[in-house]
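#struct-queue
[09:14] JT: dropping the first one here, sequence first, then the structure tokens:
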Amino acid sequence: MAPSPNIPDEVDFSLYGGAESLVEGRKPGNAGRTRRTHIVNPTHAAGVYDKPPQDPSDFLWLMTEEPHRSRRKVIMKAHPEVTKLMGHEPLTKYVAVSVVLLQLTTAYLLRHTHPISWKFLMAAYVIGGTANHNLFLAIHEITHNLAFKGVKANKALAIVANLPIGVPYAVTFKGYHMEHHKYLGEDGVDTDLPTRFELLCLNNVLGKVFFCTFQILFYALRPGFVRAQKQSYWHFVSIAVQLCFDFILFAYVPGGKRMLIYLIMSSFWAGSLHPLAGHFIAEHYLWDGLEQETYSYYGWLNIFAYNVGYHNEHHDFPSVPWTRLPALRALAPEVYDTIPSHPSWPMITINFIRDSEVGIFARVKRLSREARAALPKIELDGGAADEDARTSGSEAEMKEDGARRRK
């Protein structure tokens, strides 16, 4: 048998019992599966992968630290000038307010159009879905205090950006999202993770179709079941402003009922089977047999999404605003160009649904700090510590015995 041409030199074939390739002896179904991800600067040619599929009955539990903290230190040491990219982006407030006005204008123009008409539905999907998804990500950007220098100004802008979404979530989102960054993958803390109930109910093709269609509801409702959040003054302000806006639109604006229907329908499409919604799955689901829990996407749809596709870059440096994330990637190509990334958001949703080797189970989970602290201590010294203790005890006894004899 001729050796396989695409095998890295560092593979130790003395461990494979005489095999001359990494797929020899495997079942045809597990050999040469097509990669879904892309590497800009691979260390070797790799269009396929042959790792065994993940167990679909459970999540992938790891005891390692999340990767972004250590990678941040490496990049800051190699490129200390990265700090110049940090700080708020004044353009954000203008883009966010412009999209709010676009949505309110579109809703007003459709105030006499029947909600079930093709014109209304197409506008809600194409214009409204794209615009409200953009506002989701504007709120994400503002959550990191990247629109203004001050905290209060950022919170106020987030509430304004929330208006066309129809449901107050901007302030609540911040608390959960900060925990997502700080405790990435921690079970019971990171509410971006699917629950065990979701795994049991949605771990098949129909379940994944349901999940992708209604994923906006999962992201909205899951946090309340997983981890209750303490209410603050800004929570009540956000709820009051949104409810007043919805009530005025519904009760006092001619055609306001249909305007409100348009806005809420836009929010549904924004988090459903929409091209931009692929980023929800692209960001942290596992692909290609890798234990990589964060993926970037560098395609043109980032134009509508505040460059959220630069997701490894964002998690590594949350204080770098959306306009400077491409510069961050360019600053450290030796890091980011070697990390697998996704070539397409729409195809992510399609592959997620039809590929049996990815699903609700394809997420990294870690035990929470409380659970880790409750684990029994395991000696990793082969009993040497116990032997030392016995030796020390014997030496002490001998010294005491010698002292008694001298007396």
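[09:21] JT: and here's the second one, same format:
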Amino acid sequence: MSATSQYSSSPIFDEASCVRTGQGLHTYGTMAARLVSLLLLLALVNVAHHAGVSAEDVIRQVTDSGHGAGHPGLLPEAQFAAFVRRHGKEYSGPEEYARRLRVFAANVARAAAHQALDPGARHGVTPFSDLTREEFEARLTGLVGAGDVLRSARRMPAAAPATEEEVAALPASFDWRDKGAVTDVKMQGVCGSCWAFSTTGAVEGANFVATGKLLDLSEQQLVDCDHTCDAVAKTECNSGCSGGLMTNAYRYLMSSGGLMEQAAYPYTGAQGPCRFDRGKVAVRVANFTAVPLDEDQMRAALVRGGPLAVGLNAAFMQTYVGGVSCPLICPRAMVNHGVLLVGYGARGFSALRLGYRPYWLIKNSWGAQWGEGGYYKLCRGRNVCGVDSMVSAVAVAP
């Protein structure tokens, strides 16, 4: 993603203001708030120490995430200036800067609300804290027509279910990154192409399982060339930066002949003319299957066949910084983002719940500066945020 950010002038729907209170009237409340912030900071630093995370990074995130937002000296203007410097943001002029400051302040408040609803994770300032919720969803998600597609997915060929014995024998934790099956975290930019990154990740993993070779495959080929529509929900078509579906992309790859490598067809983050060259195909897709809507079956399919393409509700991801996310409210039917499931863990520490939770390990496509090095930990076992509603596996041709 380039240092220059271009934004539309769409209206702001969520704004917040921060007012300095009279110090004399709120001395005791301020002292109590500072004590709570200090205790929280100490707890997080202790967790960071055991997890091998820099305490400096944790301290920076606590102050950025609004735990001290009401204190004199931690005003939104200063936080926003630091955010702009850190992420190389550029705006068209003073009016746009002021508008983005208001959006930033609103997102700091929303991060605090997310923290209350998702206490197992850490929420705060992210590279996308200057985007409204509507802008964020339009530019950084991109899974289309989830409702109709979820219904049509039930008509897809289903993967053979794992037996109870196979499920019982699964390892407690598993990570395809340790096996060499996952490429580096990528960045979709200001383009609703999450579906393309989810697709290439699944194909990269399946090719590794089949051949032992990890290839970096082209999302841009899918963005430029794939206009496939769902077999049942025929109006849900792949449309570059305007969104798409992983299952449509598999169909396109099966009919077109396959997928080129990133080096031969590099990513630009914008839709352009199709430059597909059948003579440079690196991987061919043989078939794909829907994974049963069951998280034990997801674990089995993941271990057996490689990383899985999944859809989920990204409602809590704009403010996610780290930890195991387990929102109290996250509608399962509102699936809007395609990601890659690469592993799972048995014991993910939840700092504010002072306990451990099993989780899914999810590769995102928003760059390594977001989340935990570009990854999202989502608690498993409860179909949180619809994570088991749209899961597919792909097989490559020899």
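[09:30] RK: nice, looked through the second one.
[09:31] RK: Confidence is low (pLDDT under 50) at residues 1-73.
[09:31] JT: good to know. Residues 311 and 338 are 4 Å apart (CA to CA).
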